[in-house]
User: Fold this.
Amino acid sequence: MLELVKLSKSYGGRQVLGGLSYRFEPGEFVAIMGESGVGKSTLLNIIAGLDAPDSGQVLVDGTPMSALDDDAATRLRRSRMGFIFQAFHVLPHLTLLQNVALPLLLNGGSPERASDMLAAVGLGGRDHDFPRQLSGGELQRVAIARALVHRPALLLADEPTGNLDPDTADAILRLLREETRASGAGAIMVTHSHAAAAMADRILVLTRAGLQQA
Ligand SMILES: Nc1ncnc2c1ncn2[C@@H]1O[C@H](COP(=O)(O)OP(=O)(O)OP(=O)(O)O)[C@@H](O)[C@H]1O
Assistant:
């Protein structure tokens, strides 16, 4: 469902992505690794629509995102994608349940699955807590529940287990795998963790030359 065509991006005259093209297979779980500063988060942000390329296209289901107006692009991302980004903060004035239910409500669905997802990330019984009552790792798990709750076709994750201890990280990675497999979803996970990357179907390394199979 996702194809990148000749993406280029520079910051202040310094090229980060130089004509990168790649076609992701539907339903595939891909890990992207690579040196610090090479442009992994930039690439993920462009796919997510949080940043715009200088040139090139992101095609979702064959449609160039740049051909959609803002509302249509937002609707498509909201319904088809799930995000686990450090910067995507959990909303402080909503309970955990309300936070996780948000993608369901925004897509016009019923919020029933939200409580199950909180339990699945190990936060059962804490539906009515507020984010300020949680540790960093627990907040990360709320973000993970929220990213999966509406069964997105594509999950985008930037260091999803960065704040978690090894056992919790392992459990969360298994959950990401199970959830994406059950719904036939694809996933793109940026990570420095070899343990996390090992559970992907494919490991790609981002270099100046583009995305290459590890
Ligand atoms: N908004 C921005 N303004 C200016 N430069 C930026 C911006 N975002 C990223 N960069 C630069 O682009 C380069 C790539 O950054 P990016 O965060 O994509 O790398 P990364 O591969 O994800 O790194 P890491 O593994 O350290 O997280 C870096 O040199 C960074 O300083």
Summary: The chain is about 35% helix and 25% strand. Residues 2-213 form a domain with the Rossmann fold fold (CATH 3.40.50.300). The beta strands are 2-11, 14-24, 29-33, 55-60, 63-64, 81-84, 154-158, 186-190, 202-207, 210-213.
